[in-house]
Amino acid sequence: MSYVIPPAPQASVAVAGSSDRFPVRRIFCVGRNYAEHIREMGNDERDPPFYFTKPADAVVESGAKMPYPKATEDLHHEVELVLAIGTGGTDIAVQDAMQHVWGAGVGIDLTRRDLQAVAKKAGRPWDMAKGFDQSAPMGALVPLAEAGSLNSGKIWITVNGETRQTGDLSEMIWPAADCVAHLSTLVALAPGDLIMTGTPAGVSAVGLGDVMEAGVDGLPSLTVTITAR
């Protein structure tokens, strides 16, 4: 097969302790999955989950120095547990959902909060607030058997050594298995899909020179530095 232009390189995420990599197909993000974060953003915690997406090539490796994004003066961090789908499916039962997960890691949903506020006010999509270049830093993934149950465990992020967000996976309104099952009723999940499962309270702005370190108990940590544009 030939193409009229060269195809884009396959986006991928590192696998801990291996030279192998996890190929990324799509990135789905769960909105409003921790009650305290829902409250700090002024929303109703009784609402069902909703989803937005990021492009696969938005992933950024741990240790990267990434430029401060264009078109924003209010860049926010949102630390999240990431699920890596290894087996696809639709209408997956909750009790079967984790059988479809290859592994897990930690990610940061970077958000151009000022653009998001404008989009919300106008009733417009969030694409340019959430799905911009390098908006999805990702730590190395570990196979599910090494990741634990993912039903509890500390989740946190520091900026320049100062704790900004801290919570526990047990505080998720929709736990990992529920996220997989519910999302599979809306799209056919496929191998290579990533699910970012929502963020705890404490989201705040980062700027030039800031070093973000994020983690989830039992998973490799993630470090990213913001540099000049």
TrEMBL record:
Q: Which GO terms describe its molecular function?
A: acetylpyruvate hydrolase activity; metal ion binding
What parts of the sequence cross the membrane? none
Q: Which domain of life is it from?
A: Bacteria
Keyword Hydrolase recorded: yes
Tell me where in this chain the Fumarylacetoacetase-like C-terminal domain is found. 27-226
What keywords tag this UniProt record? Hydrolase, Metal-binding, Pyruvate
One matching Pfam family, short form?
FAA_hydrolase
Q: Which PANTHER family match?
A: ACYLPYRUVASE (PTHR11820), FLUTATHIONE S-TRANSFERASE (PTHR11820:SF90)
Protein name, UniProt field? Fumarylpyruvate hydrolase
Q: Which organism is the protein's source?
A: Litoreibacter albidus
